[in-house]
Amino acid sequence: MWRVATARAWAACLRPPRQCRAPGPRSGSRGAATVAVEPAAGLADEPVATKVLGLAPGQRVTLRGLVVNEQGCLFDSCAHYLADSRGEVDLSRDTSQGGDYTGVEPMGLFWSLSPAGMERPYQRLVRKQIKTPMKVEVSVHQGHSHPGTIPGQVLAKANVERWFTAPGVRRIRLKEGSVRGSLFLPSGDGPFPGVIDMFGDEGGLIEFRSSLLATHGFAALSLPYFDFEDLPTVMKDLHLEYFEEAARFLQRHPKVKGPGIGVIGTGKGAELAFSMITFLPQVVAAVCISGCSANTVAALHYGEMTLPGLRFDMSKISISETGVFDIFDALDDPMDPANSHCLIPIEEAEGHFLLVVGEDDRNWKSSLFAKMAIERLRQHGKDNFKLLSYPGAGHRIDPPFLPFCSVALDCVLGLPILGGGERRAHAHAQEHSWGKIQEFLHLHLG
Protein backbone atom coordinates (compact mmCIF):
# COMPACT_ATOMS: atom_id res chain seq x y z
CA MET A 1 0.00 0.00 0.00
CA TRP A 2 2.84 2.39 0.77
CA ARG A 3 4.28 1.93 -2.72
CA VAL A 4 0.86 2.59 -4.29
CA ALA A 5 0.26 5.69 -2.17
CA THR A 6 3.72 7.03 -2.89
CA ALA A 7 3.37 6.41 -6.60
CA ARG A 8 0.02 8.24 -6.61
CA ALA A 9 1.49 11.18 -4.72
CA TRP A 10 4.34 11.53 -7.23
CA ALA A 11 1.97 11.01 -10.15
CA ALA A 12 0.07 14.08 -8.95
CA CYS A 13 3.33 16.03 -9.06
CA LEU A 14 3.93 14.92 -12.66
CA ARG A 15 0.70 16.32 -14.13
CA PRO A 16 1.06 19.03 -16.78
CA PRO A 17 2.94 22.00 -15.31
CA ARG A 18 0.94 24.75 -13.71
CA GLN A 19 1.36 26.98 -10.70
CA CYS A 20 0.14 24.94 -7.73
CA ARG A 21 -1.39 26.81 -4.83
CA ALA A 22 -2.86 25.87 -1.48
CA PRO A 23 -6.67 25.67 -1.56
CA GLY A 24 -7.07 28.57 0.81
CA PRO A 25 -5.15 30.99 3.04
CA ARG A 26 -3.71 29.61 6.26
CA SER A 27 -3.51 31.42 9.52
CA GLY A 28 -0.63 33.88 9.39
CA SER A 29 0.02 33.33 5.66
CA ARG A 30 0.76 36.15 3.24
CA GLY A 31 -1.13 34.70 0.31
CA ALA A 32 -0.29 32.10 -2.30
CA ALA A 33 3.31 30.92 -2.35
CA THR A 34 5.39 31.00 -5.52
CA VAL A 35 8.75 29.45 -6.43
CA ALA A 36 11.06 30.87 -9.07
CA VAL A 37 14.06 29.06 -10.55
CA GLU A 38 16.25 31.19 -12.80
CA PRO A 39 17.18 30.60 -15.50
CA ALA A 40 14.24 28.35 -16.28
CA ALA A 41 16.27 26.93 -19.17
CA GLY A 42 20.06 26.79 -19.11
CA LEU A 43 23.14 24.63 -19.40
CA ALA A 44 23.40 21.63 -17.12
CA ASP A 45 26.82 22.71 -15.80
CA GLU A 46 25.66 26.20 -14.81
CA PRO A 47 23.97 27.10 -11.50
CA VAL A 48 20.42 28.30 -11.00
CA ALA A 49 18.94 30.64 -8.39
CA THR A 50 15.94 29.26 -6.47
CA LYS A 51 13.66 31.46 -4.35
CA VAL A 52 10.31 30.90 -2.65
CA LEU A 53 8.03 33.88 -1.89
CA GLY A 54 4.66 34.31 -0.19
CA LEU A 55 5.18 32.03 2.80
CA ALA A 56 4.36 32.87 6.41
CA PRO A 57 7.33 34.05 8.52
CA GLY A 58 9.03 31.00 10.03
CA GLN A 59 6.95 28.58 7.98
CA ARG A 60 8.46 25.12 7.60
CA VAL A 61 8.60 23.86 4.04
CA THR A 62 10.21 21.05 2.09
CA LEU A 63 11.64 21.75 -1.34
CA ARG A 64 11.75 18.75 -3.66
CA GLY A 65 13.40 18.04 -6.96
CA LEU A 66 11.86 15.54 -9.36
CA VAL A 67 13.17 14.04 -12.63
CA VAL A 68 11.88 11.24 -14.85
CA ASN A 69 14.75 9.75 -16.84
CA GLU A 70 14.61 8.48 -20.41
CA GLN A 71 13.63 5.00 -19.21
CA GLY A 72 10.71 6.36 -17.17
CA CYS A 73 12.39 5.94 -13.77
CA LEU A 74 11.74 8.54 -11.09
CA PHE A 75 14.55 10.39 -9.29
CA ASP A 76 13.90 12.76 -6.40
CA SER A 77 15.57 14.89 -3.75
CA CYS A 78 14.38 16.99 -0.83
CA ALA A 79 15.58 19.59 1.66
CA HIS A 80 14.02 21.29 4.70
CA TYR A 81 13.86 25.07 5.04
CA LEU A 82 12.39 27.76 7.31
CA ALA A 83 10.98 30.95 5.77
CA ASP A 84 12.59 34.18 6.95
CA SER A 85 10.80 37.14 8.53
CA ARG A 86 9.55 38.21 5.08
CA GLY A 87 8.15 34.77 4.29
CA GLU A 88 10.92 33.96 1.82
CA VAL A 89 13.41 31.15 1.21
CA ASP A 90 16.52 31.79 -0.87
CA LEU A 91 18.67 28.72 -1.52
CA SER A 92 21.75 30.84 -2.16
CA ARG A 93 21.52 32.20 1.40
CA ASP A 94 19.42 29.92 3.57
CA THR A 95 20.45 26.72 5.30
CA SER A 96 18.85 23.37 4.64
CA GLN A 97 18.08 21.86 8.02
CA GLY A 98 17.57 18.31 6.83
CA GLY A 99 16.52 16.03 4.02
CA ASP A 100 19.07 14.84 1.47
CA TYR A 101 21.62 17.52 2.40
CA THR A 102 22.23 20.23 4.98
CA GLY A 103 23.86 23.64 4.89
CA VAL A 104 23.79 26.40 2.30
CA GLU A 105 23.77 24.53 -1.01
CA PRO A 106 22.16 26.46 -3.88
CA MET A 107 22.33 23.42 -6.20
CA GLY A 108 21.72 20.71 -3.63
CA LEU A 109 18.35 19.70 -5.06
CA PHE A 110 20.11 18.84 -8.33
CA TRP A 111 23.22 16.97 -7.20
CA SER A 112 21.35 15.00 -4.52
CA LEU A 113 18.82 13.46 -6.93
CA SER A 114 18.62 9.68 -6.47
CA PRO A 115 16.18 6.88 -7.40
CA ALA A 116 12.81 7.35 -5.69
CA GLY A 117 11.72 4.80 -3.12
CA MET A 118 9.62 2.76 -5.53
CA GLU A 119 12.43 2.50 -8.08
CA ARG A 120 15.28 0.04 -8.34
CA PRO A 121 18.12 1.42 -6.20
CA TYR A 122 21.65 2.31 -7.32
CA GLN A 123 20.66 3.60 -10.76
CA ARG A 124 22.76 6.46 -12.07
CA LEU A 125 20.99 9.48 -13.56
CA VAL A 126 22.90 9.96 -16.82
CA ARG A 127 21.54 11.86 -19.79
CA LYS A 128 21.82 9.82 -22.98
CA GLN A 129 19.81 11.98 -25.40
CA ILE A 130 21.59 15.32 -25.38
CA LYS A 131 19.35 16.84 -28.08
CA THR A 132 16.60 17.32 -25.50
CA PRO A 133 16.91 18.77 -21.98
CA MET A 134 16.68 17.03 -18.66
CA LYS A 135 13.50 18.41 -17.13
CA VAL A 136 13.49 19.04 -13.38
CA GLU A 137 10.40 19.90 -11.41
CA VAL A 138 11.02 21.90 -8.24
CA SER A 139 8.11 21.88 -5.80
CA VAL A 140 7.43 23.44 -2.41
CA HIS A 141 5.52 21.40 0.17
CA GLN A 142 3.97 22.24 3.52
CA GLY A 143 6.01 21.02 6.51
CA HIS A 144 9.16 18.94 6.70
CA SER A 145 8.81 15.57 4.98
CA HIS A 146 11.71 13.14 4.98
CA PRO A 147 13.29 11.37 1.99
CA GLY A 148 11.22 8.39 0.88
CA THR A 149 8.00 9.61 2.53
CA ILE A 150 4.87 11.12 0.99
CA PRO A 151 5.39 14.90 0.83
CA GLY A 152 3.02 17.42 2.35
CA GLN A 153 0.58 19.68 0.55
CA VAL A 154 1.97 21.27 -2.62
CA LEU A 155 2.29 25.04 -2.24
CA ALA A 156 4.06 25.92 -5.50
CA LYS A 157 5.92 24.40 -8.47
CA ALA A 158 8.37 25.45 -11.13
CA ASN A 159 9.82 23.57 -14.09
CA VAL A 160 13.46 23.79 -15.16
CA GLU A 161 15.20 22.63 -18.33
CA ARG A 162 18.84 21.54 -18.03
CA TRP A 163 20.48 21.46 -21.46
CA PHE A 164 23.67 19.58 -22.33
CA THR A 165 24.25 21.51 -25.54
CA ALA A 166 23.94 25.14 -26.58
CA PRO A 167 22.33 26.66 -29.67
CA GLY A 168 24.72 26.51 -32.60
CA VAL A 169 26.71 23.48 -31.37
CA ARG A 170 26.92 20.90 -34.17
CA ARG A 171 26.81 17.15 -33.53
CA ILE A 172 28.33 14.93 -36.23
CA ARG A 173 28.07 11.15 -35.97
CA LEU A 174 31.31 9.54 -37.10
CA LYS A 175 32.12 6.55 -39.26
CA GLU A 176 35.66 7.47 -40.27
CA GLY A 177 37.64 4.33 -41.06
CA SER A 178 37.35 2.24 -37.91
CA VAL A 179 36.56 5.24 -35.68
CA ARG A 180 33.06 5.59 -34.25
CA GLY A 181 31.57 8.28 -32.05
CA SER A 182 30.22 11.82 -32.12
CA LEU A 183 32.09 15.03 -32.88
CA PHE A 184 30.74 18.20 -31.26
CA LEU A 185 31.76 21.52 -32.82
CA PRO A 186 31.14 24.91 -31.20
CA SER A 187 29.29 27.60 -33.10
CA GLY A 188 31.48 29.96 -35.08
CA ASP A 189 34.27 29.63 -37.61
CA GLY A 190 36.99 28.30 -35.32
CA PRO A 191 39.47 26.77 -35.28
CA PHE A 192 38.94 25.33 -31.80
CA PRO A 193 41.12 23.30 -29.41
CA GLY A 194 40.43 19.60 -29.95
CA VAL A 195 39.71 17.08 -27.19
CA ILE A 196 38.94 13.34 -27.24
CA ASP A 197 36.55 12.30 -24.46
CA MET A 198 36.35 8.74 -23.06
CA PHE A 199 34.66 7.02 -20.16
CA GLY A 200 35.21 3.69 -18.42
CA ASP A 201 34.24 0.07 -18.72
CA GLU A 202 30.49 0.77 -19.02
CA GLY A 203 31.04 0.94 -22.77
CA GLY A 204 28.84 2.53 -25.40
CA LEU A 205 28.65 6.12 -26.57
CA ILE A 206 28.49 8.69 -23.75
CA GLU A 207 28.09 12.21 -25.08
CA PHE A 208 27.08 14.58 -22.28
CA ARG A 209 30.61 15.70 -21.33
CA SER A 210 31.66 16.21 -24.96
CA SER A 211 28.59 18.28 -25.71
CA LEU A 212 29.23 20.46 -22.65
CA LEU A 213 32.87 20.90 -23.66
CA ALA A 214 31.69 22.10 -27.07
CA THR A 215 29.49 24.73 -25.41
CA HIS A 216 32.70 26.03 -23.80
CA GLY A 217 34.64 26.31 -27.05
CA PHE A 218 36.22 22.88 -27.57
CA ALA A 219 35.90 20.60 -30.58
CA ALA A 220 35.11 17.46 -28.58
CA LEU A 221 35.09 13.90 -29.91
CA SER A 222 33.09 11.47 -27.78
CA LEU A 223 34.96 8.23 -28.44
CA PRO A 224 33.48 4.80 -27.60
CA TYR A 225 35.80 1.81 -27.75
CA PHE A 226 33.44 -1.12 -27.27
CA ASP A 227 29.73 -1.97 -27.15
CA PHE A 228 28.71 0.51 -29.86
CA GLU A 229 27.64 -0.15 -33.45
CA ASP A 230 30.22 -2.44 -35.08
CA LEU A 231 32.83 -2.08 -32.31
CA PRO A 232 33.53 -5.18 -30.18
CA THR A 233 30.63 -5.94 -27.86
CA VAL A 234 32.87 -6.56 -24.83
CA MET A 235 36.15 -5.06 -23.71
CA LYS A 236 38.76 -7.66 -24.65
CA ASP A 237 42.14 -6.78 -26.11
CA LEU A 238 42.45 -3.11 -27.04
CA HIS A 239 44.54 -1.77 -29.90
CA LEU A 240 46.05 1.69 -29.55
CA GLU A 241 45.91 2.06 -33.34
CA TYR A 242 42.15 2.70 -32.99
CA PHE A 243 42.81 5.63 -30.64
CA GLU A 244 45.66 6.81 -32.86
CA GLU A 245 43.30 6.91 -35.84
CA ALA A 246 40.85 8.99 -33.79
CA ALA A 247 43.64 11.37 -32.71
CA ARG A 248 44.80 11.85 -36.28
CA PHE A 249 41.26 12.47 -37.48
CA LEU A 250 40.67 15.14 -34.84
CA GLN A 251 44.07 16.77 -35.27
CA ARG A 252 43.57 17.09 -39.05
CA HIS A 253 40.00 18.35 -38.88
CA PRO A 254 39.73 21.85 -40.43
CA LYS A 255 37.85 23.16 -37.37
CA VAL A 256 40.56 22.00 -34.93
CA LYS A 257 43.32 24.40 -33.99
CA GLY A 258 46.28 22.09 -33.47
CA PRO A 259 49.11 21.36 -33.60
CA GLY A 260 48.32 19.01 -30.70
CA ILE A 261 45.08 17.75 -29.17
CA GLY A 262 43.99 16.80 -25.67
CA VAL A 263 42.28 13.81 -24.12
CA ILE A 264 40.01 13.52 -21.09
CA GLY A 265 39.07 10.19 -19.56
CA THR A 266 37.43 8.72 -16.47
CA GLY A 267 38.33 5.32 -14.98
CA LYS A 268 39.44 3.05 -17.82
CA GLY A 269 39.18 6.12 -20.06
CA ALA A 270 41.76 7.88 -17.88
CA GLU A 271 44.05 4.87 -18.17
CA LEU A 272 43.73 5.08 -21.97
CA ALA A 273 44.47 8.81 -21.75
CA PHE A 274 47.76 7.92 -19.98
CA SER A 275 48.63 5.58 -22.85
CA MET A 276 47.64 8.02 -25.58
CA ILE A 277 49.76 10.90 -24.29
CA THR A 278 52.66 8.48 -23.75
CA PHE A 279 52.69 6.83 -27.17
CA LEU A 280 50.89 9.21 -29.55
CA PRO A 281 52.69 12.44 -30.55
CA GLN A 282 49.38 14.08 -31.51
CA VAL A 283 48.31 14.17 -27.85
CA VAL A 284 49.88 16.97 -25.80
CA ALA A 285 47.53 17.25 -22.81
CA ALA A 286 45.74 14.55 -20.80
CA VAL A 287 43.08 14.92 -18.09
CA CYS A 288 43.04 11.66 -16.13
CA ILE A 289 40.08 11.37 -13.74
CA SER A 290 40.23 8.49 -11.25
CA GLY A 291 42.68 6.57 -13.41
CA CYS A 292 45.58 4.16 -13.05
CA SER A 293 48.92 4.57 -14.83
CA ALA A 294 49.18 0.81 -15.26
CA ASN A 295 47.18 -1.05 -17.86
CA THR A 296 44.29 -3.00 -16.32
CA VAL A 297 42.05 -5.92 -17.27
CA ALA A 298 42.32 -5.87 -21.10
CA ALA A 299 45.72 -6.14 -22.79
CA LEU A 300 46.73 -3.06 -24.80
CA HIS A 301 48.52 -3.66 -28.11
CA TYR A 302 50.42 -1.14 -30.21
CA GLY A 303 52.49 -2.47 -33.08
CA GLU A 304 54.91 -5.02 -31.63
CA MET A 305 54.28 -3.83 -28.05
CA THR A 306 51.79 -5.38 -25.64
CA LEU A 307 50.95 -4.14 -22.15
CA PRO A 308 49.20 -6.95 -20.22
CA GLY A 309 46.33 -5.94 -17.96
CA LEU A 310 46.40 -6.08 -14.18
CA ARG A 311 43.79 -8.52 -12.93
CA PHE A 312 41.14 -8.36 -10.24
CA ASP A 313 41.43 -10.94 -7.47
CA MET A 314 37.85 -12.00 -6.84
CA SER A 315 38.74 -13.38 -3.42
CA LYS A 316 39.47 -9.82 -2.24
CA ILE A 317 35.98 -8.54 -3.03
CA SER A 318 33.78 -8.03 0.02
CA ILE A 319 29.99 -7.85 0.06
CA SER A 320 28.06 -5.76 2.59
CA GLU A 321 24.92 -6.88 4.40
CA THR A 322 22.92 -4.86 1.87
CA GLY A 323 24.52 -6.70 -1.06
CA VAL A 324 26.88 -3.92 -2.19
CA PHE A 325 30.19 -5.13 -3.66
CA ASP A 326 33.40 -3.45 -2.45
CA ILE A 327 36.19 -4.03 -4.99
CA PHE A 328 38.65 -1.52 -3.50
CA ASP A 329 41.35 -4.08 -2.68
CA ALA A 330 40.73 -6.45 -5.59
CA LEU A 331 43.03 -5.02 -8.28
CA ASP A 332 46.53 -6.49 -8.44
CA ASP A 333 49.13 -4.15 -6.95
CA PRO A 334 50.74 -2.10 -9.76
CA MET A 335 53.74 -1.46 -7.48
CA ASP A 336 54.52 -5.16 -7.17
CA PRO A 337 57.68 -5.80 -9.25
CA ALA A 338 55.94 -8.85 -10.68
CA ASN A 339 53.47 -6.47 -12.36
CA SER A 340 56.02 -4.01 -13.76
CA HIS A 341 55.28 -5.17 -17.32
CA CYS A 342 51.77 -3.68 -16.94
CA LEU A 343 53.02 -0.15 -16.19
CA ILE A 344 52.50 2.55 -18.80
CA PRO A 345 55.86 4.35 -19.34
CA ILE A 346 54.36 7.78 -18.67
CA GLU A 347 57.80 9.26 -18.11
CA GLU A 348 58.23 9.14 -21.90
CA ALA A 349 55.33 11.56 -22.44
CA GLU A 350 56.26 15.02 -23.68
CA GLY A 351 52.86 16.53 -22.95
CA HIS A 352 51.18 17.62 -19.71
CA PHE A 353 49.02 15.70 -17.23
CA LEU A 354 46.14 16.86 -15.05
CA LEU A 355 45.32 14.16 -12.48
CA VAL A 356 41.90 14.44 -10.80
CA VAL A 357 41.09 12.08 -7.93
CA GLY A 358 38.67 11.66 -5.06
CA GLU A 359 40.36 10.67 -1.83
CA ASP A 360 37.36 8.50 -0.87
CA ASP A 361 37.25 6.60 -4.17
CA ARG A 362 36.27 3.03 -3.25
CA ASN A 363 36.11 1.73 -6.81
CA TRP A 364 39.86 1.47 -6.76
CA LYS A 365 42.85 3.28 -5.24
CA SER A 366 42.91 6.26 -7.59
CA SER A 367 44.46 8.58 -4.99
CA LEU A 368 47.34 6.12 -4.47
CA PHE A 369 47.64 5.61 -8.23
CA ALA A 370 48.01 9.37 -8.74
CA LYS A 371 50.78 9.55 -6.16
CA MET A 372 52.45 6.59 -7.86
CA ALA A 373 52.31 8.36 -11.24
CA ILE A 374 53.69 11.59 -9.82
CA GLU A 375 56.54 9.78 -8.08
CA ARG A 376 57.46 8.04 -11.32
CA LEU A 377 57.46 11.32 -13.24
CA ARG A 378 59.59 13.01 -10.59
CA GLN A 379 62.08 10.15 -10.59
CA HIS A 380 62.66 10.90 -14.27
CA GLY A 381 63.05 14.63 -13.71
CA LYS A 382 59.58 15.51 -14.99
CA ASP A 383 57.33 18.26 -13.61
CA ASN A 384 54.73 18.13 -16.39
CA PHE A 385 51.81 17.36 -14.09
CA LYS A 386 49.23 18.92 -11.81
CA LEU A 387 47.17 17.09 -9.19
CA LEU A 388 43.64 17.92 -8.05
CA SER A 389 42.91 15.73 -5.01
CA TYR A 390 39.54 16.09 -3.26
CA PRO A 391 38.85 14.86 0.30
CA GLY A 392 35.49 13.13 0.57
CA ALA A 393 35.01 12.73 -3.18
CA GLY A 394 34.35 9.33 -4.73
CA HIS A 395 35.14 7.65 -8.04
CA ARG A 396 33.22 9.28 -10.88
CA ILE A 397 33.89 13.02 -10.89
CA ASP A 398 31.57 14.41 -13.56
CA PRO A 399 30.75 17.98 -14.64
CA PRO A 400 29.10 20.06 -11.90
CA PHE A 401 25.61 19.58 -10.51
CA LEU A 402 25.17 16.09 -11.97
CA PRO A 403 23.80 13.71 -9.33
CA PHE A 404 26.19 11.95 -7.00
CA CYS A 405 26.00 8.16 -6.84
CA SER A 406 28.06 6.45 -4.12
CA VAL A 407 26.88 3.00 -5.23
CA ALA A 408 26.09 2.28 -8.88
CA LEU A 409 24.95 -0.76 -10.80
CA ASP A 410 27.69 -2.26 -12.95
CA CYS A 411 26.46 -2.09 -16.54
CA VAL A 412 27.84 -5.55 -17.37
CA LEU A 413 27.27 -7.53 -14.18
CA GLY A 414 24.14 -5.73 -12.99
CA LEU A 415 25.58 -5.71 -9.45
CA PRO A 416 25.85 -2.70 -7.11
CA ILE A 417 29.48 -1.53 -6.86
CA LEU A 418 30.69 0.83 -4.16
CA GLY A 419 32.15 3.99 -5.68
CA GLY A 420 32.69 5.85 -2.41
CA GLY A 421 32.46 9.50 -1.56
CA GLU A 422 30.30 11.78 0.53
CA ARG A 423 27.52 13.55 -1.33
CA ARG A 424 28.31 17.17 -0.49
CA ALA A 425 32.11 16.86 -0.78
CA HIS A 426 31.75 15.06 -4.12
CA ALA A 427 29.47 17.78 -5.48
CA HIS A 428 31.97 20.46 -4.52
CA ALA A 429 34.76 18.47 -6.19
CA GLN A 430 32.78 18.29 -9.42
CA GLU A 431 32.13 22.02 -9.43
CA HIS A 432 35.74 23.00 -8.70
CA SER A 433 37.42 20.48 -11.01
CA TRP A 434 35.30 21.35 -14.06
CA GLY A 435 36.64 24.89 -14.19
CA LYS A 436 40.20 23.70 -13.60
CA ILE A 437 39.91 21.09 -16.37
CA GLN A 438 38.86 23.75 -18.87
CA GLU A 439 41.69 26.06 -17.74
CA PHE A 440 44.21 23.25 -18.18
CA LEU A 441 43.00 22.35 -21.66
CA HIS A 442 42.94 25.97 -22.82
CA LEU A 443 46.44 26.52 -21.41
CA HIS A 444 48.01 23.62 -23.29
CA LEU A 445 45.85 23.58 -26.43
CA GLY A 446 45.44 27.32 -26.98
TrEMBL record:
Residues 45-176 form the Acyl-CoA thioester hydrolase/bile acid-CoA amino acid N-acetyltransferase domain. Belongs to the C/M/P thioester hydrolase family. The keyword Transport does not apply. One of its GO terms (biological process) is fatty acid metabolic process. It comes from Terrapene triunguis (Three-toed box turtle). GO terms for molecular function: fatty acyl-CoA hydrolase activity. The keyword Acyltransferase does not apply. Keywords: Fatty acid metabolism, Lipid metabolism. This is Acyl-coenzyme A thioesterase 5-like. Residues 239-446 form the BAAT/Acyl-CoA thioester hydrolase C-terminal domain. PANTHER family: ACYL-COENZYME A THIOESTERASE-RELATED, DYNEIN AXONEMAL LIGHT CHAIN 1.
